[in-house]
Amino acid sequence: MFDPETTEQSDLREGRSPWHSDGVASPFRPLAQNISCDVLIVGAGISGALMAEHLTALGHDVVLIDREEPGRGSTVASTAMLLWEIDRRLGFLTDRIGFERAANIYRYSYRSVAGLAALVQEQAIACDFTLRPSLYLAAEEVGARALMDELALRHRAELPGAFLGHADLLGTFGITREGALLSPGSAEADPLRLAHGLLTRALSRGARLFHDEAVRYESLGRRAGVTLASGHSIEAGAVVLATGYVLPDIVRSDLHDIGASWALATPAQAPAALWRERALIWEASEDYLYARTTADGRIVIGGEDEDGMTDAPERAAKGPAKAAALLGKLATLRPQAEIAADMVWSGVFGRTSDGLPLIGEVPGHPRLFAAYGYGGNGITFSYMASRIIARLIAGHREPWYEDVALDRAAP
After folding, report:
1. Residue-wise over 295-324: b if at least 16 C-beta within 10 A, else e?
2. Neighbours of 124 (CB within 10 A)
3. In CATH, what number is assigned to the domain containing residue 197?
């Protein structure tokens, strides 16, 4: 157990977010001896938690390790906007890999949010999970005409959504932009409670959790071995790397880089200050502004992304200026809101140049699997990864997995 109110700095995140949890009722200590299991998951954040819940439900003997308290890395820095829309538009992906392949990935992303919603309901995980529409705003790079073209492609892919022109957007949401796409099927949650709820389900099925760090990986024929910082080792039928933006040396991709993002949470707002349907808001630009509400009526707004910035003190030094910039954008977006920051935080995330995740087998390392490069679709792609990797472990492969493979070529 840990104190969720503690403000900490780590490589992954800095500051304090509004997410709270009673933790995971499991001892969290280094491994005391060498052990074996069916699947070892390296990382006990939301990606590892989704993986552990699914694999234990399938009957696997699962072990998780993490160098930090579960969920206290990049998960607690997430704004948990569970969008099925991908950072790169369907039109962008169509130009690079063709419409059918791009549409297939978009549809799978849409089903991933629906699958996560069903899982949360089935397992009765208390995490403020709520289905929300998304509002994708026109920006300087992408105007109303481009949004209508994007919507036409989505409809061709049998994906939902509608275009709002300037007048409709202003009248319905009070937002002054050239236009927007309004789409159902996204969601929001408290990411820390979601991760801990999933871990609790996995632990109840026999999963084991240890405070340790992997320092060396090796393939052992039909199995894999991992040496830990404690000096002990774990032998597993498969190893899954779910370590946030931190790619081990054995994982390489020309598509992957690292960015930092800042976010803040306002005080609880008067109901009239919150927009219709409390939609998830984001912009049609590369480094986009994003906003959502919380169960207790706060507005969470984020953006101001920068490349790199893995040093927590450096991000902390930029925090006041980033918060001021975000508050200025909130005042433009929602002037009737209380424009104040109650909490400010930052986090580091991995992203790819094509907007698609890196999921699958680690090239040249049999029985090692990885999930990285989620960008703004963190939890949605985490769910997707848990299903893909479970099937790969079982020996099943679908042709479209090549479109998210770790060694796919740059477009």
Report:
1. eeebbbbbbbbeeebeebeebeebbeebbe
2. 8
3. 3.50.50.60
